[in-house]
Design brief:
By secondary structure, the chain is mainly alpha-helical. The chain has 20 helices and no strands. GO terms for molecular function: acyltransferase activity, transferring groups other than amino-acyl groups.
Amino acid sequence: MSNNWRKLTSCNTMMASLDGIRALSIFAVMLCHFGLTNLTLPYINKKDIFDTSRRIEYLPYYLSSLSVDSFLLLGGALRTYNVLEKLERKKFFYFKDVIQRYLRKFKYFLFALIFPYLYFYANRLTPALAVTIAFYATIFPLLGSGPTWFQDVGVQKEVCQENWPLNLLYVNNIIDPDRMCIVQTWYLGADMQLYLLAPLIVYPIWMWPSAGKYIIPVMLALSSLLTAYIIFETDTTVLFVSTFEDDKLASYFKWIHYFTPSRLFSYLAGVTLGKILSSIKNGNAEKTSKEVFYSSSILSTLALSVILYAVLQYISPDYKYSLGQSISLGVLIKIVVTFCIAWIIFVCETGHGGRTNRFLSCRPLQFISKLSFCMFLTHYIVINHLNGSTRQPEYFCFIRQTYVMIGHCVYTIFLSISLHLLVEAPSRALTKNIMTK
């Protein structure tokens, strides 16, 4: 525990802006899930929720569902950066790298085969996940009661007792996604699947640098077309808008939110960012002029403003669903949001971030970033306990919900610290050699 606490409170100076992006992203994820589950509570003025939720102050809630794309962007960037560094040093081995992703130290793999109980100590990602699953399946149902306790907690107990192997194999977003243990862990499955795919993309870029200039744009274009095709075939919405038909909302979660190919563009954008950052660190990239910085910053701001306006129209009470508009928004919103986040990281890592870089690199955000994996696993415990133990209707108010959300974040941070101290969770995927360099 003392060793884990030292790591948790240590200061990172390598690509520290990524810590800030990750910390802000986990808060956005919590905001999205808090708002989503809030719709199930018995409010006296429940109709007002649907009326007021279309106002501009609720815009961050609708955009918070894109925070997962931010995580995938960071994952793709770090994965590419690591793979390229190992390829340059002739130390990249695919299967060893995959096992190290699943297991903390490769040498523990043989011990894990002989002594399965050592698995929980050798593992990289799975210990915190396994502990959380065990908590859901055994202890959590005993910690409260209420009119909807079984709906919020009891059902998860049954699902986790039945489908926990799918989580530990990271295929829970593919196999039986309608009965998923710890619903937010679909992201871990998608991230692991894209992690396995990344070297097959990075290696040709490294082996044939001249061809890589064409490979990346082509793959980004194909992934955008794939997103458009998925929306066209499923005729679904691209944002969770509570007043849309139930079948469209169900289709959204199955084919847009959980489905790994729908998230491919964000990960490929991260691959592109990782390749650029690697070239900059190795001195192989051309120096970017101030004109390019200023023009790209202005362009990204204008593009983001247009997307925000389009989202406001999309969630308007007067909006009538259109498949063509859903396809356009679904493709453009991923392109613009991922480009803006990638551009912020690029500006910070090239020394032009200024106050933005200092904010993203500050110690509190680094602390939250290292807790982000545990916060991701545990924040639904706080949400489910709050919802399941509610015994009387309340009055919905934006200010009150803000206070409840702050309290929810504080409880989640304390719960995450406890989990992190007991079972060390992964924070940053940079290798020791790169950190030393």
